[in-house]
């Protein structure tokens, strides 16, 4: 599988440094105290359309956010990050939020490994280094598994429930922490509870 996202946005440069200077000069207010005030952490996808600071209207120091491909929780780095936060500050809730039209729905580990193995020089952005394949083989991309008759929504909700369960059962996530699961609908902008 690799279908589902045949098109990507056309390249369009963005003036990052100019935008930051405007932010620093016009918007930024220094906040010397660490610790998200809501005591809520969000684990979600790195998709550029899935921005919790936007869809929850968060300001600085409101919540901490962990983003990775798919917003999956079963990774050492997600647990490492939760651990770091939870020794500094209370975490009242962790929200697992996956989203519709996620790129992780469109590929399998096998497809990614085959792509790296084939290493077409015409890959977007050029080929990988010649020794890339063993590294790709060592990584699980945690694809959203398909079952017969599944809708996209079924697959997203199942992955959310798996990730909620993973956090609930992990010894490094404190039992007092509420773990909740959500789906962010890119079309409506709504974040809907799903467990
Ligand atoms: Zn995604």
TrEMBL record:
Cofactor annotation comment: Binds 1 zinc ion per subunit.
InterPro entries recorded: Carbonic_anhydrase, Carbonic_anhydrase_sf
Top-level taxon in the UniProt lineage: Eukaryota
Keyword Calcium in annotation: no
Gene Ontology molecular function: any one: zinc ion binding
Pfam entry (one): Pro_CA
UniProt record similarity statement: Belongs to the beta-class carbonic anhydrase family.
PANTHER family assigned to the protein according to its UniProt record, in alphabetical order: CARBON DISULFIDE HYDROLASE, CARBONIC ANHYDRASE
UniProt name for this protein: Carbonic anhydrase
Lineage: Eukaryota, Fungi, Dikarya, Ascomycota, Pezizomycotina
